[in-house]
Design brief:
By secondary structure, this protein is α/β, with parallel strands linked by helices. It folds into two domains: 115 residues, 3-Layer(aba) Sandwich (Rossmann fold); 96 residues, Probable inorganic polyphosphate/atp-NAD kinase, domain 2 (Tumour Suppressor Smad4). It is built from seven helices and 14 strands. Strand 7 and strand 8 form a beta hairpin.
Length: 228
């Protein structure tokens, strides 16, 4: 693989202030990258706290400038980073900070070795399916979303139930009275969909999981459909 010359750091600012270990790891990463002559950019909120205000830029700008983004945070930070990085084709490397960290690739103890391998081009890319959702109103796209884990259609008010009609490639699949519907990627199959009774799917399989949320029937089950 190509050696990396520009690295972005996206550090969860709450974890940065709450956990000294996070600040230590982020500072060590900056020092190592500087020693190797690599250009480093940091999300603006955390750059100030790390003493590198001049390197601070917005999260969206990280994806436009960096060749890879190293994420210090939980799965939520990784998911947010993925939404910005995916349209630019920029890979991300998650650092597990001791929480759930399902999407994190390396631990803090392995970070230095992982960075050396990254800079030397000794790595492989693990591509994951992502979902794009559009909300259409009056024949126009009102909102558009990109997701690594899942897209959730749910009720807007408490104690309401939805009639969810699901179609695949224009063909009717099912209609549910439910609290909503989870449309999950294989990566997201171990998240909200799993909690709602959906199956676990290997990340490399090209499928989409449709999982109703609290359907008002005993017969509703999650459905796995082709991702093509």
């Amino acid at each position: 693989m190509t050696a990396v010359t520009v690295v972005g750091l996206n550090v969860n600012v709450e974890k940065l202030h709450a956990t000294p270990e996070v600040a230590r790891l982020a500072r060590e990463a900056v020092s190592l990258l500087e020693e190797r002559g690599v250009a480093v950019w940091i999300n603006r909120e955390s750059a100030d706290a790390l003493g590198h205000a001049a390197r601070g830029i917005g999260e969206g700008e990280l994806a436009r400038r960096a060749g890879v983004i190293v994420v210090f945070g939980g799965d939520g930070t990784i998911l947010r980073t993925a939404r910005a990085a995916a349209p630019q084709g920029i890979p991300i490397l998650g650092v597990n900070l001791g929480a759930f960290g399902f999407l994190a690739e390396v631990t803090g103890a392995d970070l230095e070795r992982a960075l050396h391998r990254l800079l030397g081009g000794d790595y492989q890319l693990d591509e994951r399916m992502m979902l794009r959702a559009r909300v259409e109103q009056a024949g126009r796209t009102a909102q558009e979303f990109l997701a690594l884990n899942d897209i959730v259609v749910t009720k807007s008010g408490y104690a309401r139930i939805l009639k969810v009609r699901t179609a695949v490639n224009g063909e009717h699949l099912a209609t549910h009275l439910a609290d909503g519907m989870i449309v999950a990627t294989p990566t997201g199959s171990t998240a909200y969909s799993l909690s709602a009774g959906g199956p676990i799917v290997h990340p490399a399989v090209d499928v989409i999981v449709l999982t109703p949320i609290c359907a008002h029937t005993l017969n509703a089950r999650a459905v796995v459909v082709s991702g093509a």
